[in-house]
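Hi support team,

I submitted a single chain yesterday and got back a structure, but I'm not sure I'm reading the token output correctly. Could someone confirm the output below corresponds to the sequence I sent? I've pasted both exactly as they appear in my results page.

Thanks,
R.
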Amino acid sequence: MILKGTGNLYRGAETEPFVSVKYSLLVDVSKSTGNHTWSGECILTRKDVIREGEMLSIELDSGHRGNCSLRKKVNKAVMGLPVRYFYQITGMGNLTKKED
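Hi R., thanks for writing in. Yes, this is the structure output for that exact sequence:
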């Protein structure tokens, strides 16, 4: 299943997000174990420094949350347009619904 939307990134155990992102994730749920395999791309809504390999958490607009790491991807400029930075997301573990 493909999930698209706007979410937030968190560092470590912080309770406040440090940046909003637009994401597109491919999520595969194993029928036998219920485990999630997920990865995708995101675009930051403002320019921030992300250290590659840093352990982060993403919270999706559905309230699901999961641990991930990001790797910067650079798309070349197209005739007069600025370079845009996209990040490849690698999910670690299941996407779980945030408890209220």
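A quick pointer for reading it: The chain has a mean pLDDT of 84. Let us know if anything else looks off.

Best,
Support desk
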